[in-house]
Design brief:
The protein is mainly α. The protein has 16 helices and no strands.
């Protein structure tokens, strides 16, 4: 379905942005909703397909792994194919993967469907950000990214609660059947509405770079993901991280030598982009603490159900969703510096409020502190991403969005593995539930240290708008 025939890009000023925004946001919504829907359904899948916990967890791990491998290649795909062809193809692959998951008779077929979903999602997210940056002028990009961020926040809010309700009343396959019609409608609407916005430069296909990128990012992501369960000393974890690090180093060296690199690492010559990417990574590592640790705390230690643990995170996700458009508008007026400083101050304080949890900690306390914490996250994530990408020239925006998403994936994998490892190693099971909660408290101390590092970095963001730094190929 992807066409490599050259198609004239439409002038962004001539595009009707509202229907286009609806198409893009719908695509983002189903991609993220699909990921969060599955988590609550895993126990039912284990029972139905007779799988153990380590095996079924691969349905989540493979998604992140393939997603992380595809994102770095997206910059090349955006320059190689038309916007319309690439987006509709990605949505179609996502729909096919979802249909395969819905009818999968066994674990192997279910994995094939998940790989299709992950590959499509890895293309869709950076492509959507690139389109937004090309169709909106620089003074309105904060607002556009705020709307995009609202959906990214609402999908995880709805996911666990909707999934908990579905698997209680219907077979686990219903979580895929719910998503499928939305994707099909989005494909039909995209076919009539979406225009070709990006310019095709037809870069050469460098097979060696694609292999190196896959082994490099894939090795690191797998190694860090497996470390949370297998421990940092296991052979597979050490081997994956070493192979990933070596091949990624060779990949970066090769990209800097090529005239037409698959992923342009020269974007890091721009100090604002480098700073905001680092800030986004550290903030994401701090944020991941709540998303991963709180459900474990709620279900395994405090005795709440999967549905209740989803509801515990719901206020925070709603706050983040509501705040994203507001912080987008504030960014357009005031820039990222003070939004980041205030936001990260909130994140730091609330993260340390999670370091004194006990058996008596209430549902309301966790939900409230997490909601305030997510208010702080909303003031940081989209504004710093937009601030960094705003400093890149137009031809580097596909590379900037791909790089930004890739670095966040790596940060998420590292942060999850590190915090789960800290929680496990610091726990004292012989002291009962409170001994287990001790591990959670110490993991939030580590997350708090990430927040402090991010807060310090935020003071280096300059006020006002610096002139764009042009980066040559």
């Amino acid at each position: 379905m992807v066409s490599s025939e050259n198609a004239t890009a439409t002038n962004p000023r001539e595009i009707n942005k509202v229907p286009l925004l609806i198409v893009l946001i719908s695509g983002a919504f189903v991609a993220i909703l699909n990921q969060t829907l599955l988590a609550t359904a895993l126990p039912k899948i284990m029972q139905d397909l007779q799988l153990d916990a380590n095996t079924v967890q691969w349905l989540q791990s493979i998604f992140m792994l393939v997603n992380g491998i595809m994102i770095p290649i997206t910059a090349f795909l955006i320059e190689r194919f038309t916007t319309r062809g690439l987006f509709i193809t990605a949505l179609s692959i996502f729909a096919l993967g979802t249909a395969i998951c819905a009818i999968a008779p066994n674990f192997s077929v279910l994995m094939i469907g998940r790989i299709g979903q992950a590959a499509a999602a890895g293309i869709m997210m950076p492509l959507m950000q690139t389109i937004l940056f090309l169709i909106y002028p620089i003074e309105k990009r904060g607002t556009a990214m705020g709307m995009f961020g609202m959906v990214i926040a609402f999908a995880p809010a709805i996911g666990p609660t909707l999934s908990g309700w579905l698997v209680e009343h219907f077979p686990w396959r219903s979580v895929f059947y719910v998503v499928l019609p939305i994707i099909v409608i989005d494909i039909i609407v995209a076919y009539f509405i979406l225009k070709n916005i990006t310019n095709q430069t037809f870069p050469k296909v460098d097979v060696i770079s694609i292999i190196l990128s896959t082994l490099g990012f894939g090795g690191l992501l797998y190694g860090f993901s497996a470390a949370g369960n297998s421990g940092w000393g296991s052979v597979q974890v050490v081997a994956s991280i070493v192979v990933g690090a070596i091949t990624l180093t060779i990949f970066i060296w090769r990209q800097l030598k090529l005239e037409e690199p698959i992923l342009e690492f020269r974007v890091f010559r721009n100090p604002v982009f480098s700073l905001t990417t680092a800030l986004g990574m550290v903030t994401f590592m701090a944020m991941i603490g709540a998303a991963v640790i709180i459900p474990i705390l709620a279900q395994n230690m405090l005795g709440f159900t999967a549905l209740e643990s989803g509801l515990m995170l719901l206020p925070g996700a709603i706050v983040m969703g509501v705040m994203n458009p507001i912080t987008g508008r504030l960014f357009d007026r005031f820039g990222a510096r003070w939004l980041s400083i205030i936001g990260l101050s909130i994140v730091t304080v609330t993260t340390f409020m999670f370091t004194n949890l006990s058996i008596d900690t209430s549902f309301a306390y966790i939900a409230m502190v997490n909601a305030i914490r997510m208010l702080g996250i909303a003031m940081v994530m989209m504004p710093v991403t937009t601030a960094g990408l705003n400093k890149l020239p137009i031809h580097l925006i596909p590379h900037g969005t791909a790089m930004n998403n890739t670095m966040r994936q790596v940060a998420g994998a590292v942060g999850t593995a590190l915090l789960v490892t800290v929680m496990t190693n610091a726990a004292l099971p012989e002291q009962g539930v409170q001994g287990m909660i001790r591990g959670v408290n110490i993991s939030f101390i580590v997350a708090g240290l990430f927040a402090i590092i991010a807060l310090i970095l935020s003071f280096f963001i300059k006020s006002g708008s610096d002139s764009k730094v042009r980066i040559g190929r």
